[in-house]
Amino acid sequence: MKTLTNFSYHHVLVLGLAKSGTAAAQLLLDSGVNVRINDLKADKETPEVRELMKQGAEVITGGHPLSVLDQVDYLVKNPGIPYDNPIIAEAEKRNIPVVTEVELAGLLHEGPLVAVTGSNGKTTTTTLIHEMIKSDHQKVSLAGNIGHVSCEVARNTGEDETMVTELSSFQLLGTEKFRPDISVWLNLYEAHLDYHHSLENYHQAKAQITANQTPADTLVYNADDENIVKFLPDVKAKLVPFSIHKKGEGAWSDETSIYFENERIMDKQDILLVGEQNLQNILAAVATVKVNGIRNEAIQDVLKTFAGVEHRLQFVTKKNDRLFYNDSKATNILATSYALKSFENPVILLAGGLDRGTEFDSLIPHLNGVKSLVVFGETADLLIETANKAGIQDVVKVETMNEAVQEAYKRSEEEDVILLSPACASWDQYRTFEERGHMFIQAVHKL
After folding, report:
1. Which of 33, 115, 135, 192 is exposed most, by the fewest CB atoms within 10 A?
2. pLDDT digit string (tens) for 250-275?
3. Was 122 annotated as part of a binding site?
4. 431 is a domain residue
């Protein structure tokens, strides 16, 4: 496995362990760097921590004393730790560089690097790019916020291997020299203001994905997103747009097909993924891999068979001409509204979950195609009120996911879509949205 070479720092503090901190600490130790780890809740008796200590890491738990910065000349932080944390604030006062492990990955990886960010659609787009490159029989690895720690993946990649990495604003904010060969900027909405404190800060964090690019690099960007377009005058990379509204440049679509520049790629009716949001993700992926020289046949093979990332408008199955979709990741009204816009067929919507005091009136304009509503969880009664306002006549309240699926199926006809898109977090009944989605899939297969 590769280690850091020409790394000019000697005493590094890793703030926060979890997967990314553990991987960063191991890489630094293997690279001959002195490592100090500070984690409030880490247990020194776990095998992972004991192994790091055995290799020479100093581990401080139970608090965050400012003394952990003594002799430190570099700080690698967990992406979730905000910058107003006292340790990070003090490190910046002392002019100690503060990065996330993504910065280390950029120093390690020697082959082509593709980085994907956006407020929505990152995982789907990153996965599509990875699968298209793989389908063309080229070496490729998947990394980043998608579940594989970037600096760990980069240790095993060669010069001829493309690394495709999904990056959040939290990760990007902790980069200094990180420079993708191709960066992909999907969209830019309001998000994570509790972390970034302002919309401008959030936007600037996202813009970091292209900050170090040169004219030899490429930015694939959403030409339909005004928030992204306003950053373009400062971008040095070659610009490649994608758009569902503007035709003829980059990746685009008309009523029947998708294209890259003046080249037709395939019929839209042959694409398994549905919805406007997914069409944007598809065009972003197509633009990226065409820049990378991937054949149309490889793109077509993926788009004809890719059913979606799990729990994100994921096609589950077709039973007796009913189509089942799992969108358990839709934990807010905006996500559910996107899901509902994806279907022309009548929809039976399964919704409900944790009550965060949200009003659902903003969902009403998107309920036109909903013929039946099956509700559950703490917000069930609120959603019933919303259905009444929207004029939905058929509404049923249930207790369990099995009941929800059975009731939805009873109310369905051929060509109907049965969609789990809860518009709420899952924590009233489930540990995670993934658990909720798995329960839905199991209930569908029991029918």
Report:
1. 192
2. 999 999 999 999 999 999 999 999 88
3. yes
4. yes
